[in-house]
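Dear colleagues,

As part of the handover before I leave the project, I'm documenting each prediction I ran so the next person doesn't have to rerun anything. This entry is a single chain, and its sequence is reproduced below.
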Amino acid sequence: MALSHTLNYVRAAERLGLSQSALTRSIQAVERECGSRLFDRDRGGVSLTRAGAAFVERASALLAGADDLATFMQRTALLEEGEIAFGMEPLVARALLAPVLSDAIAAAPAWRNRVAIRSIEALSPMLKAGEIDFFVSAESGLSQDPAIRAERLGAFPLSLLVRAGHPALTNLDDEGPYPVLLAGEAGTFTHLPARVTRLISGPRHIVEDYDILAKLTQATDAILIASAVAVRPQMAQGLVEEIPVGDRARVTMPIMIYTLARRSRSPAMLKLGEALRAAMRGVADDRPG
């Protein structure tokens, strides 16, 4: 390309830091590879052949594209341009998504985020199909899948939430059982104390919308199993209360980030992971009063 710009072997060689003979050999090698003469050289100087002009036009476009690609990749690494797709279970999204995404948008306004809020049963096939880069949810059997990498982000305190005036608030020996409200199948009963298992042995109702779950909790005797974060406004108004179940240190719901085991993690994924961990620490310590 240098020779096409200068049409002078001496100046082109100087620009490239080569000897004139080395430049000549390089040009000849390219011409042999192409099967066409690219430059004519006579007493009048150096000129492009018709094939050479076509070659330079195409090469210029390719080099410009390569420069653009390099710039794009650099901007992607710095989170200045690009896109990431990820998923969250409803509870995690309710607790973490707004603050984490707000900070991400402020820090990298040109970066694009695509978020799917689904149950773990829906997010798992999306991850394996490559539709999302990772997802965050309660711990599940996916941790045993060799194709999936599971990494703990933290844990939410797990609560049994009921309407104000519910019988179980004052009598844990209440016969029960009561209907159970859930946002998904994963990470629900494993970490609860054994003495309250009977209370939540009734039929399960899965609704992937915490606004609806909060209304059902207020309107029925059903027990909502979730983090208190899910119904923070209702608890603040005294409409929903937490059943006292004892040592909360043992009543937690591990929150995991799931990725494909063989897929490398991008700078964007690592950055979001750090932000999610920080947000998890804040939420776990900030329980509604």
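The domain at 84-154+255-285 is CATH 3.40.190.10 (D-Maltodextrin-Binding Protein; domain 2). The CA atoms of residues 148 and 260 lie 5 Å apart.

All the best with the project,
I.
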